[in-house]
Amino acid sequence: MINRRNFLVLTAAAGVAAGCSSRAAEAPIASPRASPPPAPAVDLKFEPAETDIDLGGVSVRTWAYNGRVPGNEIRIRKGETLRVAVTNKLPADTSVHWHGLAIVNDMDGVPPLTQSPIPSGGDFTYEFMVPDAGTYWYHSHVGTQLDRGLYGPLIIEDPAEKADYDEELVVVLDDWIDGTGTNPDQVLENLRKNGMKPMEPGGPGVSPTTPLGADGGDVTYPYFVVNGRVPADPEVRDYRAGQRVRLRVINAGSDTAFRVAVPDTDLNVIATDGYPVMPIKTKSVILGMGERVDAVFTVNASVPVVAVPEGKQGHAQLNIRVGGAPSAAKVDDFVAAVRKELVLDTATLSPTPEVTLPARTPDQVIEARLSGPGAGYTWPFNGRLYDPTADGIGVKPDQRVRMRMINESMMFHPIHLHGHTFEVVGRDGPRARKDTVLVAPRNTVEVDFDTVNPGKWITHCHNTYHLEGGMAGWIFYEN
Ligand SMILES: [Cu+2]
Questions:
Q1: pLDDT by residue (tens digit) across 162-207?
Q2: Distance from the CA of 255 to the center of ligand 1, in angstroms?
Q3: Which of 87, 133, 338, 343 is most enclosed, with most CB atoms within 10 A?
Q4: Angle CA(252)–CA(257)–CA(262) in degrees, nearest 5?
Q5: How would you classify the pairing of strands 413-417 and 429-434?
Q6: Ligand 1 center to residue 373 CA distance, Å?
């Protein structure tokens, strides 16, 4: 396959070779038959570095891309080439993962499985064609770096999409602890030393209004942020009454699921993890770490967009303002009410016909048994800890694979598969196409995917600390 970089190298070489004849050098280098013109590309530079960030009256020293949290929004069209030159100014190895994209394996950003880490002071250029439209994101895939500020939104547009809204609002949720007297490496160290807080007695506590059970997470965060702002000084966005806003919500948290809701407002959910679903109205939707949801709502008055951390104190918000008026919503009361409501899990949504996988009996079933925590804060995957140098789970190309995620633990795990978008298996038919799915305590979720993107692909819990505790495996296949 000739990518654009190779194409440029090839054509430059052709120019040099033709240099002996001025007539040949003036001739077009590539004939139409030889190669189509390269697709448009978006060229960016990323400098991950230690930096001071103002979270809205809260100053933290953290690690961020180009001095911003979240990192700059990338907007690109489906089919275009994204080229990001990373210069690592961090005092540590790093990488960038393009969450949810089915791209070539060596651009997936998972050291050491798919590339060598980018060393401190080193550089690496990611270059790939973006295959699918939707709401995606990027983040470091090294150590606990995601729980610093190393993440940002990646929005892929499809000019053919029938867009039925007036404005877009990208909402990136995060749980924040870095630079508040500790950092994620110290948090992990303490978890390993001290173990976990005692488990809740009396079972996992899963109920219709508490779908993830009683255990919200392992880390107590001092702040929750939307687009890098604490609720005391939130981002404010101005709209006119009657405007329809497409929310693109991304949970970039490391140890926190969030319920998202807007007072007195129906959210019309249209997509999850980049893929369209049959639209459905809800008052609130829950997102595990790594998950995304697109929802359209009509602005009527000044309201906050509220993110409620599941099983944890506090909240995050962004303010929608109409006509400069303050919001009349009583946010604390609203947060308390949202906690008690039935909440939509995006895995229960139905895919639109065009993204429904063709019916097919699985050729192979693989398991992902999730257990823990073990001694020293370990989280086994199929009974052992992640080892990128050991054998992965072998699958064959061009097959339908069913992955059975069996949660034997008392805590929820958002399980993410790289390089593919799976279809959640419902009791009575297919459910949403997703790349990350919530698996509740003592519950089992099955997903189907087709092996059409060869390589070594990690599948892991998107809790940063569980991943560091070993909750990951990897599949591999060649063409
Ligand atoms: Cu987990």
A1: 878 999 999 999 999 999 999 999 999 999 998 766 565 667 899 9
A2: 8
A3: 343
A4: 90
A5: unpaired
A6: 10
- Going by C-beta distance under 8 Å and a sequence separation of 6 or more, which residues neighbour residue 381? 368, 369, 370, 460, 461, 470, 471, 472, 473
Look at strands 344-345 and 393-394 and give their pairing. unpaired
pLDDT at 5: 35
Taking the centre of ligand 1 as the mean of its atom positions, its distance from the CA of residue 146, in whole angstroms, is 15
How many whole angstroms from 210 Cα to the centroid of ligand 1?
17
Contacts of 163 (CB under 8 A, 6+ apart): 246
Calculate the alpha carbon distances from 154 to 98, 128, 461 in Å. 8, 14, 21
Q: With beta carbons less than 8 A apart as the criterion, state whether 47 and 66 touch.
A: yes
What's the Rg (C-alpha) of the chain? Answer: 23
Q: Tell me what pLDDT residue 38 has.
A: 67
CA atoms within 13 A on the CB side of 41: 16
Per-residue pLDDT, 252: 98
Q: In the chain, what are the helix, strand and coil shares in percent, each to the nearest 5?
A: 15, 40, 45
Taking Cα atoms as reference points, which of 338, 414, 351 lies closest to residue 379? 414
